[in-house]
Amino acid sequence: MSDEFMTAALAEAEQGLTEGGIPIGAVLVHAGRIIGRGHNRRVQQGSPILHGEMDALERAGRQRAQIYRASTMFTTLSPCAMCSGAILLYGIGRVVVGENRTFMGEEALLRARGVTVEVVQDPRCIRLMEQFITEHPELWSEDIGECPS
Predict the structure, then answer these.
(1) Strand, coil or helix: what is 35?
(2) Prediction pTM value
């Protein structure tokens, strides 16, 4: 079932790329059902915060605390500090990461705070990000908060 949810997150990432954005997707899953799905919409909406995980949380809508605590976030890329903070804030107990080779987010922080983090190194996620970074290095640098020299 995990592969089904990572495939859904990957479909979100591909949708973001089709829209001219950064190909990172996420789904929030509770009781075996996707309750929120999203992709990085920073470019499309001119937003400084709409990363894939943030978009999935936004689209899940307001949930009771016990729903978040019993949910899993599937994301195509290791979560950055902002997204990790939201995961911690809402008490999401498990995160499944598609890949962390192209970007290592705050996995250590999540683990230190009791979140189960599973990294699957999905070749589809790796290939998508490597190609995007090669083709759009300036946009990638902007998204991860680096200033190009």
Answers:
(1) strand
(2) 0.94
